Amino acid sequence: MNNEIKNPKTEVKTGINLNDKDYITNLLSSLKEMVKNYAVALTEASNEYLYQEYNNMFLEYSKLQRDVYELMFRKGWYVLKKDDNMEINKKYQTLNQELTELNG
Questions:
Q1: What's the half-sphere exposure (Cβ side, CA atoms, 13 Å) at 81?
Q2: Comparing C-alpha atoms, which of 79, 71, 80 is closest to residue 20?
Q3: Half-sphere exposure (CA, 13 Å, Cβ side) for 34?
Q4: CA 36, CA 29: separation in Å to the nearest integer?
């Protein structure tokens, strides 16, 4: 049983020089970090105008991050792991127990 969800991998040159995959991986990491930082900035915005500006940037960078991820997935450079139902149910039970304890 194959537990990976992936596309055929686009091969790139390997070696000491950076290749397209290296550049886009770096871009994705940077965009993820920016989205996280804008989320924090949204929670700390001191007025409505600033909040709206941060929110617009957050939405723009979130979309860009998603677009880059989807490109990497299409190129076969991003692989997803498919969990079986038992693992999913186990994680659900763990999270549900934690929620119960928080509400208790």
A1: 4
A2: 71
A3: 19
A4: 11
- Residue 24 CA from chain centroid, whole number: 14
What is the maximum span of the chain, computed from C-alpha positions, in angstroms?
56
- Does residue 67 belong to any structural domain of this protein? yes
59: containing domain: 13-79
Count: domains in the chain: 1
Question: Is residue 93 one of the residues assigned to a domain?
Answer: no
In this prediction the pTM is 0.74
Instruction: Give the pLDDT confidence of 10-21 residue by residue, as tens digits.
Output: 999 998 999 999
**Given pLDDT bands bounded at 50, 70 and 90, which one contains residue 36?**
very high
